[in-house]
Design brief:
This protein is of the alpha/beta class. It folds into two domains: about 300 residues, 3-Layer(aba) Sandwich (Rossmann fold), CATH 3.40.50; about 210 residues, Nucleotidyltransferase, domain 5 (2-Layer Sandwich), CATH 3.30.420.240. It is about 40% helix and about 20% strand. Strand 6 and strand 7 form a beta hairpin. The two termini are about 45 Å apart.
Length: about 550
């Protein structure tokens, strides 16, 4: 128990630097111990610690060593297991919410705790389920639990390990891994449910179903573990986080809810190494400072990595609407006009983003030459949209600047795009036309009949990921030459990056922005076509 009590003392004294959230949690849980209706079961906590220490680590430099918990982990587990109601002797905690940066052993912690809860918790027919936003994600924790259990029963004498579940026949205990399909969860009787990486959950349906499945258990336990993410207001994880902050501050009361929030304080400098222990409690033991320094450098050199690094390695909530490329960097690539006539006979790649009925439409040609990548974009808008758009004044300026083409009527005239492509084909060799298939089938048929190589460009994050990162690299290295255009510059200013949990990125319009990003999309599509088929190009491409 020494590590458990020492951690509490070190947090209270300031010997361990923690955020206000951990200090509040320590005081809250210590307060529970002296309440007349609660007590701390030190004997069971020690039994849990002993059980876990009997397991062995199975990976990395610690492989083969005792699985004993780190001090901060002892505090978490001891609090969850040991604080009980005097009236019933059951655990007070029913809902754990742990948010901590990546590489701080949260998966191994919960895997070890799960083994204890299935084997040694004196629960009749314990039934444990592990879920995540994908089955593959859920399997990470499940397989970690399998490996820890195998270290205490290497021959499988008492534990039966299968691909998707584990059985402990002595108490009819089971541990299963599931997909995120809530419709398949009805009818179960979970004693413990583990929800991994809840920052990626889009709704509360799965968690609600899991909670309802525990109604017959005397001391059920729902464990939510996660890093920070970029799905904010209205999404379940961030809403739970906000409730946790209020509970820790004493604004709301729920003694069964135990939040453990390892984050920076609101005014902390995330680049200051002295603050990193707040969000990385296993720093210098599991996660190295050098690794965090490298991640910080990565985020500075590649803006597409800012959100992933902040959310995963420093546990900072981020809006998906993070700035992509600074306007001055775009402007630095726009120091000259790009005239297609100067590239007679060379190969070009065309990206097209057709509008729905009355919206703006853009097309871009990208031509590689002499170590540079030249981009020229044309944007079209129907006259009715031009007149009635909330962006009318801007559109007027763009039209006066000669960078916006107005078509007559109230719908987009696709023939203008086709005519422009035919005109281009008389000057350069068009390797391919890369376009979004949505709303463009007839236009694509027409272009195919004219002899053009039509190449559908899928609009998902994985398709956009490489060319988006490559365009940024070309812009920052000044290898991109972008036709001088106030409208294209404006569209870059409207563009933010959407990032998924795998760090794939795609441009999208910023939240609350009424502007357009068509030109940015077509530039990326044209570059994506080149990356897929450089046609013997002379350039070496680096995908960040």
């Amino acid at each position: 128990m020494k590590g458990y009590y020492q951690y509490i003392e070190d947090v209270r004294s300031g010997r361990i630097k923690t955020s206000q959230y951990i200090r509040q949690a320590v005081e809250r849980l210590e307060g529970f111990k002296v309440r007349p209706d609660m007590y701390f079961d030190e004997e069971e906590v020690q039994r849990c610690f002993d059980f876990i220490s009997y397991m062995k680590e199975w990976s990395g430099v610690a492989a083969g060593k005792s699985g004993a918990l780190l001090p901060f982990q002892k505090w978490i587990v001891g609090s969850v297991i040991g604080i009980k109601w005097k009236a019933t002797g059951t655990r007070v905690c029913k809902d754990v919410f742990m948010i901590v940066a990546r590489k701080n052993a949260k998966t191994s912690l919960i895997a070890k705790l799960s083994a204890y809860l299935m084997i040694a918790d004196n629960e009749a027919n314990p039934f444990i389920g592990c879920v995540a936003s994908s089955r593959d994600q859920a399997r990470i924790l499940f397989e970690a639990a399998q490996k820890y259990m195998k270290t205490i029963d290497p021959k499988g004498d008492v534990l039966k390990l299968y691909r998707n579940y584990i059985k402990f026949p002595q108490n009819d205990g089971e541990f299963h891994v599931y997909s995120s399909d809530a419709s398949n969860m009805d009818g179960y009787n979970f004693s413990t449910a583990i929800c991994d990486e809840v920052h990626s959950y889009k709704d509360n349906l799965l968690i609600s179903v899991l909670r309802s499945s525990m109604g017959a258990r005397k001391q059920p336990l729902l464990i939510q573990i996660t890093t920070a993410g970029f799905l904010l207001d209205g999404y379940p994880c961030f809403e739970t986080y906000k409730v946790a902050i209020e509970v820790l501050a004493g604004v709301k009361e729920d003694p069964t809810f135990f939040p453990f929030i390892y984050m920076l304080d609101p005014d902390d400098d995330w680049e200051d190494e002295d603050n990193w222990i707040k969000c990385n409690p296993a720093i210098d033991v599991v996660v190295s400072r050098q690794y965090l320094r490298e991640q910080l450098t990565l985020s500075k050199n590649d803006s597409t990595q800012i959100v992933p690094v902040k959310t995963k390695n420093f546990n900072i909530w981020c809006s998906a609407a993070s700035v992509w490329i600074k306007q001055e960097d775009i402007a630095a690539c726009m120091k000259q006009k790009v005239n297609v006539e100067d590239f007679q006979g060379l190969v070009g790649y065309v990206g097209v983003d057709l509008a729905s009925v009355g919206d703006t439409t853009s097309m871009t040609v990208m031509i590689p030459k002499d170590g540079k990548f030249y981009f020229k974009t044309w944007t079209f808008v129907p006259r009715d949209t031009f007149v009635n758009s909330p962006n009318h004044e801007l559109y007027q300026k763009f039209y006066n600047d000669g960078v916006l083409i107005i078509s007559e009527g109230n719908i987009t005239d696709y023939q203008l795009i086709t005519n422009k492509i035919v005109e281009l084909s008389k000057i350069i060799q068009i390797e391919g036309i890369y376009y979004d298939q949505y709303n463009s089938s007839q236009w694509a048929i027409q272009c195919t009949e004219l002899g053009f190589n039509m190449c559908p460009f899928r609009q998902g994050l994985q398709s956009f990921n490489n060319p988006t990162k490559e365009l940024e690299r070309l812009i920052l290295s000044r290898q991109a030459v972008i036709d001088k255009s106030t409208m294209v510059l404006w569209m870059f200013g409207n563009t933010v990056l959407r990032t998924d949990h795998a760090s794939n990125v795609k441009p999208e319009k910023g939240k609350g922005v009424s502007g357009k990003i068509d030109a940015v999309i077509t530039m990326i599509e044209s570059l994506g076509g080149y990356l897929e088929n450089p046609n013997g190009g002379e350039f070496e491409i680096f995908v960040i």
